Amino acid sequence: MSGEARSDALKLNSPRAATPDSWREGFGVIARILRLTFEHPWQVTFAIGGAMVAAILQLMIPKLLGHAVDQTQAIVDGGGVTRASLWVTAALLLVVSVLRGGFTMVQNYFAEAVGHHVAYRLRLSYYEKIQRLSFSFHDQVHSGDLITVGMLDLEGVRMFFSTGFVRAAFLAMMIGIGAFLLLTTNFVLGLLALSFVPFVAWRSSAARLKLRAAWLTLQEWLGVLTRAMDENLSGIRVVRAFAAQRHEMAKFDKLSQHTLGLQYERIGIRVRNTSMMTFSFFIAMGLVLLVGGQKVIAGEITVGTLTSFLAFMTILQLPVRQLGMMVNSFARASTCGARLFEVLDLNDEIGEAGDAPELAVGDGTLEFEAVDFAYPAAPDKPVLKGISFTAHRGQTIGIVGPPGSGKTSVASLLPRFYDVTGGSIRIDGRDIRSVALASLRRAVGVVQQDSFLFTTTIENNIAYGDPWAEGATIERASESAQLHTYIKNLPQGYSTLVGERGVSLSGGQRQRLSIARILMLKPPFIVFDDSTAAIDAATEQRIRAEMREVAGDSVTLIIAHRLSSLKHADEILFLEDGEVVERGTHDELIALGGRYKALSDLQGQPDDADLEDTKDDRDVENERHAVRQG
Predict the structure, then answer these.
(1) Does the keyword ATP-binding apply (predicted)?
(2) pTM reported for the whole predicted model
(3) Could you give all domains of the chain from N- to C-terminal order, each with its CATH number?
(4) For 88-116, how does the pLDDT look when each residue is reduced to its tens digit (9 = 90+)?
(5) N or C, where is the chain less crowded by C-beta within 10 Å?
């Protein structure tokens, strides 16, 4: 991702900076939304066509009312008009009203259909985009902000066609054709009837600017509110453990009150402008009634003609009231669309050429050659410097070092969660940046310390990498991970539902399930990122023995704090401040008498051993308790 793209990602936390209030940008976003809507031409045609026909039928009603009034006057005056003619006019008025309602229904149905089609496409595009964006993007943007954009902002875009564009087309037809009819009927009264339109246009423009700014602020705080809820739900056990419910409620209430105030402010802007526009409408109607009444008295126009003018203005009153909602829809769509397209337009940092070949693993040789790495958020602070090693098929590389030495960064570079900033990583002599990303990640299995499990069955969690795997394959993988016996003792076995994030399993069980998930795929390269920290030493040794049988031909990288996990490694790298300061086998490093030997002596102290045994006993007891509880 370029520096520009990284800065764009950060703007989600401050949308005011992401979408400056400018007419040009707002119209650009609106134009882009309209291009998406016109990808459904026949539905758009039905929606707009229905709106136009409904507008024309609506405009016929004032004419028919005026004609009916003149007919009634003629009947009273004995002007030769029969009552049957009045009945015909009434029937025609009824038919026109029914047809207007029918075409309005067509307009609403197809306008909503277009909006939902656009939302469906954008929803998939957005979800697919956040699946592909690099870890560096997700490191900088809170998931609550992404949820807000993917739901609230997308909803603002969805509603635009029906509440904004189609409503604007309907109002344009009403005012355009109506203005022609009024001005050709009586020019002076027509001007008076339309005198409110310039004022409404001015207030609409002013309201749009204010509403867009209000929407920006509101969307920002809705994102903050979503973040607060997301963090609270993710850490609900910590909240309960510290009895902090009252504090969390007070914090959430404060955020909600602020958001409510912004809602009131936005509604206030819309109501004030709508009220002013409606007031100008009634002033115009009063002028028409005053001047038109004098013209009727003078015999210049009939009572029916004046009725037509007043009926037209009465019919136009509802669209005028809706004008504020239409302006609000344009403002919301331009704001929400800008935030949504901001994410969709981000460049992928971890990209690949369109013709990148699939990775075909042959000899299975892995090479790190003078690898440097710095996280995109801090490019001037390298976390890895000149890391080099080579591993062949069947070999194990161990990586150890103090916290912050760069161990996990090594694990993140092989599957290209991040790209190296210097040097290269090669598989069978081919730079991993030159092959198809999906094929690389199929070849590299990563078991992380924080084992994420989905809210589904144990079987589905193990088979996540191959949903069509047979039951025997899944059971074999769980046996290798020393989890099969525990699962079989559960009342529903492999069909047992795992709670959110695997909370129904102990830490060691979650790690073993993650190991089973990788072992089932048998990838040629396996990375264990401190993934046995919660597993007792005896179980870990059994897992290692099974792995030598199941995945003995794989290149294995083991990152661990516990040196007992690394003793069997063909080479061990001791990292410090991102550099390899010691390397060799376990025995060679012990004989060297350096940092590795000091760490080995520290972990070999009786107190630490006792603590480790206590942890192992506690893990076993947790498993027994889980079995008893079912």
Answers:
(1) yes
(2) 0.71
(3) 3-344 (1.20.1560.10), 366-450+525-565+585-629 (3.40.50.300)
(4) 888 998 999 899 899 999 999 999 999 99
(5) C
